[in-house]
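Sequence in, structure out. Go.
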Amino acid sequence: MGFEALVLIVDGSGIIDRGWPEGNLMDFEFVCGRCGADNVVWGEPVASWWSQKYRVEDFECWCCGTTCTPHDPPWTPAD
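Output:
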């Protein structure tokens, strides 16, 4: 059994890069409440020993530019 770790690259100004093992990346699909366009948003993995959890920040719709707030989970994984 292996362990996965968050990789942080830090300089004097703070965190400049972060990376997760390739298997933990997850995209979710959200629909814009204004124009109805599908948006694919990256879910940031949140450390959890018992399940896979993700955090999705507010995002800008690619079609109309509206700032959208994701609804509460569960979320639809993007294909």
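Check: The CA atoms of residues 58 and 70 lie 6 Å apart. The longest strand covers residues 38-46.
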